[in-house]
Amino acid sequence: MPRGSSPKRERQYEHIKESVKSRGESEKKAEEIAARTVNKERARAGESKTASKTSLEDMSSSKRGGRRSHSGAQGPTYDQLYEEAKRRNIHGRSNMNKAELKQKLGR
């Protein structure tokens, strides 16, 4: 957790971390997921100095989790796949749909 975060965010971090660990993920993966989720919520609430465009415009993590919990695991969103393709410098990504991005990324 970043220095200066509120007790609420500390509790949120611990809760998410324990929840992810209970699903069988490693300690390191649980910490990463919890930190990313809490940092996104901090950015959306205006509690951080900087925020990515995705953090501000994407659906909130709590809402997204609720939508996916009843329909099974659908994996990453199109935007998340696109950002990964961008990081990996995959050419033609802007013309690909979600399935094509998944295939190119090997998911």
Describe how the helices and strands are arranged.
Elements: H1 7-22, H2 27-44, H3 53-57, H4 61-68, H5 78-87, H6 98-105
Helix pairs in contact: 1-2, 5-6
Task: Give a verbal description of the structure.
The chain is mainly alpha-helical and 107 residues long. It has two domains: 1-73, no CATH class; 75-107, no CATH class. The chain has six helices and no strands. It is globular.
Which labels suit this protein?
single chain, 107 residues, mainly alpha
Short structural summary:
The chain has 107 residues and is mainly alpha-helical. The chain has helices spanning 7-22, 27-44, 53-57, 61-68, 78-87, 98-105.
- Beta-strand percent range: under 5%
Residue stretches low in confidence (pLDDT < 50, at least 5 long) are none
Give the tally of structural domains.
Answer: 2
Radius of gyration: 15 Å
**DSSP, total strands:** 0
Order of helices and strands: HHHHHH
Q: Could you tell me how far the N terminus lies from the C terminus, measured between alpha carbons in angstroms? A: 30 Å
How many helices? The count is: 6
Question: Tell me about the biggest sheet?
Answer: none
The helix/strand class is mainly alpha
User: What general form does the structure show?
Assistant: globular
Query: What is the residue-mean pLDDT, rounded to a whole number?
Result: 83
Helical amount: 55-70%
